Amino acid sequence: MSDQIKFIVDNLNKEPFRKNYNLITFDSLEPMQLLQVLNDVLAEIDPKQVVDIREEMPEQTAKRMLSLLGILKYKPPGNATDMSTFRQGLVIGSKPVIYPVLHWLLQRTNELKKRAYLARFLIKLEVPSEFLQDETVADTNKQYEELMEAFKTLHKECEQLKTSGFSTAEIRRDISAMEEEKDQLIKRVERLKKRVETVQNHQRMLKIARQLRVEKEREEFLAQQKQEQKNQLFHAVQRLQRVQNQLKSMRHAAADAKPESLMKRLEEEIKFNSYMVTEKFPKELESKKKELHFLQKVVSEPAMGHSDLLELESKINEINTQINQLIEKKMMRNEPIEGKLSLYRQQASIISRKKEAKAEELQEAKEKLANLEREVSVKTNQTREFDGTEVLKGDEFKRYVSKLRSKSTVFKKKHQIIAEFKAEFGLLQRTEELLKQRHENIQHQLQTVEEKKGISGYSYTQEELERVSALKTEVDEMKGRTLDDMSEMVKKLNSLVSEKKSALAPVIKELRQLRQKCQELTQECDEKKSQYDSCAAGLESNRSKLEQEVRGLREECLQEESRYHYTNCMIKNLEIQLRRATDEMKAYVSSDQQEKRKAIRQQYTKNIAEQENLGKKLREKQKVVRESHGPNMKQAKMWRDFEQLMECKKQCFLKQQSQTPMGQVIQEGGEDRLVL
User: Which residues contact 37 (CB under 8 A, 6 or more apart)?
Assistant: First the structure.
């Protein structure tokens, strides 16, 4: 209890209370003052509780505090029978009741502030079912519930943002950068608008561009749908292949195995699955739940610094040392029965660990098998996509191998023929080189002979003349052919033009008549359009007037309905009040004393008498306090003087011990004498 009071006093002396209490002054507080302290703490948690208790009725104070403590989820010590004593103690300001409440509130002030803040928005107002039958009330209640859910989501997001570590400076910088980008984009759009306005048919071009953008978005959406459908098809194909493989394996197992082996295999699978379901999976689920709970607890707590981590490490080391000490003590006892049990326990734990390890190995093997089957299906799909053919199996693969062998023999033969051709090509290349060398030698000899005879370059000029004459004959032939072709083409074009003119003459006549009709029809269309526009404008004005009238009549109807419901509610309230008044009159007039006691007048008179008696007692108590105030103050002053005297003696004694002894102090007859 003393530790509790010390904790309360220390927290009340801190911010934001600043009460300047010590243990004696706090313990000597009157019940009314103690209730005021409790109310100040509650007002710090919920600002709505800022009330002077002297200006409030005790019952109202107790009701208000109990409602707030219920919202804060305070559980009084004891069972349900102690609740009445708790309420009475709260009304009269009993210390055994208020001290635990103050201790509980001051321990978790920040958490309770948050809970009180949320309670203002999340405590649902219970609306009677008869009022919910009204549509407006039901709609309002539904909107109220939707707003409550929206507040929950927003509060969660706010808490996540607070704990996520985002700084307001970064967010402000991002907002300013986004605003600058927005201004730049607005200016760019305005410049583009000014450029586009000078272009002809810009509205039509904008419309076409808008349609193009819509079509592109639709194309992207369709491509996305196509990709999703491809993925679904791929998964469906994989599922089909997996099921086909399972079916093949089951058929193979059913074809090869006997009923006894099948039953044995099924029993083993059932045992393994039952072990996984009853032992392994629940343990893993429990460990995952604990890990999740621990992680949620870590996330909900504020960020830890280096000092907090060092404290946690020191605590962990202390707990580990305590555990080791307990283990050593247990081993030092060395009881024989416990030793045998420990052996059995060790064997059981080893067996269970082996069992878990084998189960994990089996699970890993199954997962590997599933992964390999998945890889096989993926590879088959890839080969099908590349080649457009499926992977061959069984007899088909054998036939494919035989075809491949026959093709390989043909390939070898062709390869041999190609090698022979390559060898022959090499020989021909060599003969060509030899002939070129001979030609060069002959040319060289011819040049030497021409130089000797004095006609050097004669063979070269003769070859050039022959070549040029051959080219000239070819060019002349080509010119003759092109001139003939051009003359024929001109004749064909003239004949085609004359044919087209003769064919288009009746069409041109019809076109002239149709142009005249088109001009007449456009005039009629313009006249009809002007008539239609005038008629549509008149109908639109009439329609707007009718819509305004309908809107006004609907508003009047809604007002009358709300007035009708309001009058109905007022009539029901007046009927209830009238019924209560008649019941009160009956109870007051009746001769039965029990019914008279039930009357409100009797209850109020009784409460007034109790309050008057309480006021008399309080006045008497106040009188006693006033009479004893002077002597008590004198006694307190004497006690303070006595404390100062003892402190002075203590200081003198300490100084005397610290100094070198100059003499001897002799105590005789209650007196101290110093002998040098």
Answer: 12, 19, 29, 102
DSSP 8-state secondary structure symbol assigned to residue 277: I
Quickly count: other Cβ atoms within 10 Å of residue 27's Cβ: 14
Which amino acid, residue 524? E
Rounded Cα gap, residues 186 and 341, in angstroms: 83
Residues 6 or more apart whose Cβ sits within 8 Å of residue 157:
none
Q: Are residues 19 and 111 in the same domain?
A: yes
Kindly state whether residue 92 falls inside one of the protein's structural domains.
Answer: yes
Q: Which parts of the chain register pLDDT below 70?
A: 1, 78-82, 164-167, 252-258, 301-305, 331-344, 384-396, 456-460, 479, 483, 486, 593, 595-598, 660-676
C-alpha distance from residue 347 to each of 82, 167, 342 (Å)? 52, 57, 8
Q: Is residue 158 part of a domain?
A: no
In a domain, 547, yes or no: yes
- Count the domains in the chain: 3
**How many CB atoms lie under 10 A from the CB of residue 638?**
10
Q: Are residues 29 and 101 in the same domain?
A: yes
Q: Is there a contact between 106 and 7 (Cβ–Cβ < 8 Å)?
A: yes
How does pLDDT run across 253-291, given as a tens digit for each residue? 666 556 777 777 778 788 878 877 887 788 888 888 888
Range of the domain at 559: 509-589
Q: Are 442 and 448 in contact (CB under 8 A)?
A: no
Q: In sequence order, what are the residues at sequence separation of 6 or more whose Cβ sits closer than 8 angstroms to the Cβ of residue 165?
A: 303
Cα-Cα-Cα-Cα torsion 56, 62, 65, 66, nearest 10 degrees, comes to -160
Q: Which tokens is 651 given?
A: 């200081």
Q: Tell whether 531 and 598 lie within a shared domain.
A: no
Which amino acid is located at 226 in the chain?
K
Residue with tokens 């030092």: 332
CA angle 420/426/431 to nearest 5° reads 130
- What is the chain's Cα-based Rg? 54
DSSP string for 189-245: HHHHHHHHHTSTTHHHHHHHHHHHHHHHHHHHHHHHHHHHHHHHHHHHHHHHHHHHH
**Residue 59 contacts residue 88 (beta carbons within 8 Å):** no
Q: What are the phi and psi torsion angles at 304 (to 5°)?
A: -100, 145
Residue 279 lies in a domain: no
- The CA-CA-CA angle for residues 440, 444, 449, to 5°, reads 145
Looking at the structure, do residues 526 and 569 belong to the same domain, yes or no?
A: yes
Question: Amino acid identity, residue 1?
Answer: M
Q: In 10 A of CB 186, how many CB atoms?
A: 10
Give the whole-angstrom CA distance, residue 586 versus residue 594: 12
Q: Report the chain's terminal Cα–Cα distance, integer Å.
A: 53
Global pTM reads 0.29
